[in-house]
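Entry 14. Ran structure prediction on the chain below.
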Amino acid sequence: MEITGTVQHEAWQSRTLPPVEQLRPDLWSIPVPIPHNPLRYVSTYAFALDGGGLGLIDTGWESEEGWQALTEGLASIGGGIDDLRGVLVTHLHFDHLGLAARVREASGAWIAMHPADVDVVRRLTTTEAQASVDAEVAFLVSLGAPREEALSDVGGAENLSGFHRMAVADRLLEDGEHADFPGWHLRAVHTPGHTPGHLCFAEERTGLFFSGDHVLPRISPNISSGPNSGPDGNPLGDFMTSLQAVRDLEATEVLPAHEWRFRGLADRVDSLTEHHERRLTELLDAIRAHPHATPWDLASHLTWSRPWEQYARRMRIFAVTETNAHVRLLARRGLVVSSGGPVPTWTAAVR
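Output, structure tokens:
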């Protein structure tokens, strides 16, 4: 894999925000900071459109600092919020969709997403915050969390207030459809896993591949089951299938939403696939060593980027729900079996 976003990479190493960069005569990357998050920023991409105006992929986290970064970034390339005609959102997470409502209100730009993520956003924006909290707590308890710890990790309804103000997209983009960016040939590629409706965009004129969170150069995106996954949901299986769907695209460069740009899409897909297969093996070994364990318990027996005792709140939720996504794929492969019941435990299958 070859790092092409060398300025981004240097900024990452120095723990600073990278600058706005002109990537092509008609394309720029604009970093928008994410507060209190190890990912630090999301790279939004601004496109000059034939006939005038700008298009955008992703908007960034909703905050005054984020709004300032986006508006000043657009100004630095000779544009402004008023010039935006449309926004493509790779997926529903707040660091990608958060500012979309404010962008639409200020510019009149349309917002486009995949229908599967639009459905989730619509539910979030029409459900009381406390009901969302209650559902997440109940889901964590079903994974083996003590109720008091689940309540502490999820926190109060006020923590979700921003998510209930997110923009519901007014345009839908299905797999294979082309975005309405005049002068560009951006084909939507549905890559479920990180979210049900995650979209990448393959630019057929230049070979550029805008990968969102689906393929990142250094880390694997969080692949979690959640209250909306349903008992038959298989987010990790979806992600692995989606990786293979993009592996052999002839990408001249990969432009992800985080970290830095790179070349070598197939190599990176293979690395991500191997990572999750190793993770599945590690989890199966943990289940064999700790039979009749819940995902909440099993997460503490896996290798993480820091000691398990340091995990709490949203970080612990992501770790446990990602563990559960891996358990579900092991079950689909017939390698583990569930005890059933409201709080199922897991045991290695007899082969």
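The two ends are 39 Å apart (CA to CA). Will compare against last week's run tomorrow.
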